[in-house]
């Protein structure tokens, strides 16, 4: 069974290609950029290119996209072309080619403004039932592409699973205040409490989705590290997240202090991965307890795969005021 991986030069695409090749699975990587994990260079906006690459393919893992960091540097039309038209090209040609399953990589950014409660409100408890309120062209086009996926399942009976992934990029936060207050590892360790996932776990979710797609048909899943919090914690998380973390993980205070790290004073959201764990049988390895275990052992909490893929950036240009410009 040949697996087509779009966006093979990107963080996730490379990670998937590394994993598939390591297990000797038949796979083809495509991207607009040449790389060691790109077998064919071309754009998903090119219908003829897409058609050619789908010959003999049984599964599509569609990770290619313009991301949030591109909002300030790319036109809205470019987002529509890549994220919507490119996805439509893949769906139509996958249907024509008789592909068995299609996995679409989406994003928790699709929830947009639904992630930010009003002042004084509890942290948002974010499950798949939350209605997205996109706040930029990135979110709009990812939600649109998700809807195309749902349409093709309904009309063409193509088995499609949509994976809304939380943060897994290794680059620094685009928020200067976060960069100033927290060193990179500290910030990303904090995020594993509520809004981050290790790339190795993202890959495992995609590989499970291949296996489960035909039986499930269509579903959206949040792919984020398993949070230690419950819905009963959301009010206190907004007021005093440090107290909640110290209550659940008493050793976190000393382990953080030994590194000079700080917890976030409040959390505005919590991503809930229960549906993916229950229906896909997904068992993410990296969570906050893993962070603490790694600190105690004086080890890097990132997976070997995350370290191997490393930082790629999103632009050929470097920017004076951050890792990428903010629109």
UniProtKB/TrEMBL annotation:
Residue ranges of the NAD-dependent epimerase/dehydratase domain? 3-215
Q: Which domain of life is it from?
A: Bacteria
Pfam families linked to this entry = Epimerase (PF01370)
The transmembrane residues are: none
Q: Protein name, please?
A: UDP-glucose 4-epimerase
Q: Which organism is it from?
A: Labilithrix luteola
């Amino acid at each position: 069974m040949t697996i087509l991986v779009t966006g093979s030069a990107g963080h996730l695409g490379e990670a998937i290609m590394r994993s598939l090749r390591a297990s000797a699975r038949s796979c083809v990587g495509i991207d607009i950029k040449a790389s060691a994990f790109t077998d064919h260079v071309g754009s998903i906006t090119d219908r003829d290119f897409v058609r050619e690459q789908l010959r003999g393919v049984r599964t599509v893992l569609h990770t290619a996209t313009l991301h949030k960091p591109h909002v300030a540097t790319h036109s809205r039309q470019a987002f529509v072309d890549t994220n919507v038209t490119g996805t439509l090209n893949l769906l139509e040609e996958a249907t024509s080619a008789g592909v068995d399953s299609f996995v679409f990589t989406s994003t928790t950014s699709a929830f947009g403004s639904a992630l930010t409660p009003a002042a004084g409100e509890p942290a948002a408890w974010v499950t798949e039932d939350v209605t997205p309120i996109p706040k930029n062209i990135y979110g709009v086009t990812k939600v649109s592409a998700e809807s195309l996926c749902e349409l093709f399942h309904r009309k063409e009976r193509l088995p499609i699973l949509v994976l809304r992934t939380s943060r897994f990029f290794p680059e620094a936060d685009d928020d200067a205040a976060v960069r100033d207050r927290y060193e990179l590892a500290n910030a990303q360790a904090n995020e594993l409490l509520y809004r981050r996932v290790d790339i190795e776990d993202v890959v495992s979710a995609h590989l499970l989705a291949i296996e489960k797609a035909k039986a499930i048909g269509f579903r959206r899943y949040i792919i984020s590290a398993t949070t230690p919090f419950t819905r009963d914690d959301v009010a206190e998380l907004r007021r005093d997240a440090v107290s909640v973390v110290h209550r659940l993980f008493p050793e976190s205070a000393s382990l953080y202090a030994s590194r000079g790290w700080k917890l976030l004073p409040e959390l505005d959201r919590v991503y809930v991965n229960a549906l993916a764990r229950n229906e896909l049988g997904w068992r993410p390895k990296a969570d906050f307890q893993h962070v603490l275990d790694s600190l105690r052992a004086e080890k890097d909490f990132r997976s070997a795969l995350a370290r191997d893929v490393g930082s790629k950036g999103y632009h050929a240009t470097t920017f004076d005021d951050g890792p990428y410009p903010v629109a």
